[in-house]
């Protein structure tokens, strides 16, 4: 009997996926384990295997199309089987699979203005504002489709609490938003409800282009908003003298290369210093539990390392980083970063870190303030190593010397890490870099 | 409080009312010398005599019509139907006479009668003797419809029904006759149109009546093992309906399962679903579920009968669907 094949959960957090490419075509025979498509999830491009046998009778999703989790993407059955009933079901069912909107270009000749809003100033350069067509970009809801499914009770509770239903994820049948979803809505949903409902829609001026966000970008946007609005960040900055570390690295790489080993980067050393610090200050290596009543003590040091992608970023996790040698860390980070850029990481490779490391030094950034990746307790932001004039005391005299220095900024979740604790952790990182021999102990 | 069977409670209610009011009488097939087909009228002939406990021929249309006439001229007849399956033979008297005369006579005549008897499926009675007709009578303005689930409710509601000035259709689940429970002694009256919470709970409301209350309680025990706490609302009187009790329960639990033995189409449960969606729309967190008999005549075969009638597993599954 022909069956509908639906969008599978290929990453633990995906709510929808984009069919990047069909690897099997209509009419192809499928044997269990065959990869039928490549699917872009919120994190990576994943293989979509089928465990059933049969013939691929119909592809319901076109490449590039966004399909909600559980919505049909194809029909599998016996050769030549009549699938008209299934096709009808797909056509009339509550399928929300809609082709992803292609980039929408603003109409060239006509200036575009927001729909009448008392306070929205009309672009001064728009002489024909009154008769100009208005670009109505549909608000992109959290679920990715225009219609929101919510129980009547959930709607009422959300209205009473001033929560925007579009910010919620439904856990009921078919993704319906039910009471528990409203009750467990993060506080920020309440706080942002007003601006969301009154905010003017995006304005496309001539030449502007509306582009669909990649899944990675959409997920990151949502997570970052949540992180920045729900996690009380505070920041600690420290300047580190990198002379010893740089000298040490040069020696290490000279020896390592001669022996055919890994080249260690500055970032690898900082990763090692951070991992060592987290092991020495275990109180900072904790997370706040979702109930707000517990802390989770991590007896593991798993560091998420931010890797920039063309269309977002990904944070592969280096497990047990405190237990690994500099060479092993260097090798692992390089492998994870390469596979992250190719979107070939498995979900378990980019989830479950306990602390993050992010480095913009290679872009000449001196210092910056990073956003925590919940539920981790903090993130270390690394600036570039540069020569700075510093005051050095020698023989009771102050001298100005040119030394290689670097600025580290640690963002901490104040719910779990207090200022003094954070300072202790950062001091241990600095210690490891000042005395790099500690990193090979 | 003394414990007694459902049939004893009914007997007590009728006997007390006949003792109290000389206008009350009982008539029907085998109610006298045979002491009742289901022994509900045990000993009543001996106690009250042939003038007040009257054996009738097997002619429901005739003796229900006699009951209507007797009620119109001032008596308070209790007409026992051996089972409500046979009420079909008397349905013209019930719907067109008993229910309508008060209105058609502009209030000159009242019809204070009780039409009572066994209803619903029992074990392997076959399609024609397993009917649940409450929806038919609930759909008739002018009638009151009562379906008790416990001996105590049976007594309190039957006494009130006998005293009521309108015709009351009083349906007793055949399988409940032998069920025992504590019953208050003496003057125990339960007003018509007042429901009862048979089990308080917070997660989901089950509306059930007559013997389905017992099924709901069994399901509640199963669900309790999984930490699901259901509230069981027994309306007891289906018409007039204690809708406020149902509404307040749904407003508390936000979920509703309707449990009925009757087949689903155009049934009493549909009326409850309508009223709840109308008045509690913004309180519902899940679609209303209904557990009913399958939409077929009740089969004779034991295995098929078991499939058709509601059971614990179906109630448990329906409650869980509301909690998905």
Note the topology.
The complex is a heterodimer of chains A (441) and B (324).
Chain A: E1 3-6, E2 16-22, E3 29-30, E4 35-40, E5 45-49, E6 54-59, E7 66-68, E8 72-77, H1 84-92, E9 104-105, H2 152-161, H3 179-183, H4 187-198, E10 209-210, H5 215-230, E11 233-241, H6 243-258, H7 266-280, E12 286-288, E13 295-297, E14 303-305, E15 307-309, E16 312-314, E17 317-318, H8 326-341, E18 355-359, E19 378-382, E20 386-394, E21 397-413, H9 419-434
Parallel strand pairs in A: 14-18, 18-19
Antiparallel strand pairs in A: 1-8, 2-4, 2-7, 3-6, 4-5, 6-8, 9-10, 11-21, 12-13, 14-17, 15-16, 19-21, 20-21
Helix pairs in contact in A: 7-8, 7-9
Chain B: E1 3-5, H1 6-20, E2 24-28, H2 44-48, E3 53-55, H3 60-72, E4 76-83, H4 91-98, H5 101-104, E5 114-119, H6 134-138, E6 144-146, H7 151-163, E7 168-173, E8 180-182, E9 196-199, E10 204-208, H8 212-225, E11 230-234, E12 237-239, H9 243-253, E13 256-259, H10 268-279, E14 289-291, H11 302-308, H12 312-322
Parallel strand pairs in B: 2-3, 2-4, 4-5, 5-7, 6-7, 10-11, 10-13, 13-14
Antiparallel strand pairs in B: 1-8, 6-12, 9-11
Helix pairs in contact in B: 1-7, 3-4, 8-12, 9-10
């Amino acid at each position: 009997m022909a069956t509908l094949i639906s969008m599978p959960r290929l990453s633990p957090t995906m709510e929808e996926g984009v069919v990047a490419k069909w690897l099997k075509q209509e009419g192809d025979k499928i044997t269990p384990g065959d990869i039928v498509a490549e699917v872009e999830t919120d994190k990576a491009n994943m293989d979509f295997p089928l465990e059933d046998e049969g013939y691929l009778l119909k592809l319901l999703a076109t490449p590039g199309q966004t399909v909600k989790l559980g919505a049909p993407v194809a029909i599998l059955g016996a050769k030549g089987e009549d699938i008209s009933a299934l096709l009808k079901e797909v056509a009339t069912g509550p399928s929300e699979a809609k082709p992803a909107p292609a980039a929408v270009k603003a109409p060239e000749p006509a200036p575009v203005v927001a729909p009448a809003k008392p306070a929205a100033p009309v672009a001064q350069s728009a002489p024909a504002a009154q008769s100009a067509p208005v670009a109505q970009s549909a608000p992109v809801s959290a679920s990715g489709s225009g219609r929101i499914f919510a129980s009547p009770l959930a709607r009422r509770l959300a209205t009473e609490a001033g929560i925007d239903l579009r910010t919620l994820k439904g856990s009921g049948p078919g993704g319906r938003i039910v009471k528990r979803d409203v009750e467990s809505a993060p506080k920020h949903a309440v706080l942002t409800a007003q601006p969301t409902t009154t905010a003017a829609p995006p304005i496309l001026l001539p030449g502007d282009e509306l582009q669909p966000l990649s899944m990675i970008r959409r997920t990151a946007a949502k997570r970052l908003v949540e992180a920045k609005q729900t996690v009380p960040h505070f920041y600690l900055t420290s300047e580190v003298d990198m002379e010893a570390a740089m000298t040490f690295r040069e020696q290490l790489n000279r020896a390592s290369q001669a022996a055919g080993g890994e080249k260690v980067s500055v970032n690898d050393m900082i990763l090692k210093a951070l991992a060592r610090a987290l092991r020495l200050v275990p109180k900072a290596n904790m997370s706040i539990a979702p109930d707000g009543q517990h802390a989770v003590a991590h007896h593991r040091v798993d560091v998420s390392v931010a890797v920039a992608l063309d269309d977002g970023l990904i944070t592969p996790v280096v497990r047990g980083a405190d237990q690994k040698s500099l060479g092993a860390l260097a090798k692992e980070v390089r492998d994870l970063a390469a596979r992250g850029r190719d979107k070939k990481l498995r979900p378990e490779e980019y989830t479950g870190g306990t602390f993050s490391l992010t480095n913009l030094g290679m872009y000449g950034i001196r210092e910056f303030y990073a956003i925590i990746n919940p539920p981790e307790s903090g993130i270390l932001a690394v600036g570039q190593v540069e020569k700075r004039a510093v005051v050095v005391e020698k023989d009771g005299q102050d001298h100005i010397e040119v030394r290689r220095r670097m600025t580290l900024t640690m963002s901490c979740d104040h719910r779990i890490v207090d200022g003094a604790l954070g300072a202790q952790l950062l001091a241990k990182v600095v210690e490891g870099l000042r005395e790099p021999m500690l990193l090979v102990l | 409080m003394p414990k007694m069977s459902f049939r004893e409670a009914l007997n007590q209610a009728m006997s007390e009312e006949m003792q109290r009011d000389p206008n009350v009488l009982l008539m029907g097939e085998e109610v006298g010398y045979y002491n009742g087909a289901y022994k509900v009228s045990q000993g009543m002939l001996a106690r009250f005599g042939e003038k007040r406990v009257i054996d009738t021929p097997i002619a429901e249309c005739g003796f229900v019509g006699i009951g209507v006439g007797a009620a119109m001229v001032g008596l308070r007849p209790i007409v026992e139907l051996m089972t409500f399956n046979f009420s079909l033979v008397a349905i013209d008297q019930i719907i067109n006479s008993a229910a309508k005369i008060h209105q058609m006579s502009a209030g000159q005549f009242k019809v204070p009668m009780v039409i009572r008897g066994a209803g619903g499926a029992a074990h392997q009675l076959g399609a024609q003797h397993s009917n649940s007709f409450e929806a038919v009578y609930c759909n008739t303005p002018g009638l009151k419809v009562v379906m008790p689930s416990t001996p105590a409710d049976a007594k309190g509601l039957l006494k009130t029904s006998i005293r009521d000035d309108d015709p009351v259709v009083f349906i007793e689940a055949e399988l409940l006759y032998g069920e025992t429970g504590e019953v208050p002694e003496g003057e125990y009256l339960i007003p018509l149109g007042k429901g009862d919470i048979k089990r308080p709970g917070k997660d989901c409301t089950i509306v059930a009546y007559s013997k389905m209350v017992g099924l709901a309680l069994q399901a509640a025990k199963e669900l309790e093992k999984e930490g699901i706490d259901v509230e069981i609302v027994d309306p007891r009187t289906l018409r007039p309906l204690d809708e406020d009790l149902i509404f307040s329960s749904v407003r508390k639990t936000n979920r509703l399962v309707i449990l009925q033995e009757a087949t689903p189409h155009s049934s009493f449960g549909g009326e409850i679903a309508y009223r709840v969606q109308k008045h509690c729309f913004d309180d519902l967190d899940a679609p209303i579920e209904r557990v009913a008999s399958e939409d077929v005549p009740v089969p004779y075969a034991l295995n098929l009968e078991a499939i058709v009638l509601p059971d614990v597993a179906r109630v448990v599954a329906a409650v869980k669907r509301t909690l998905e």
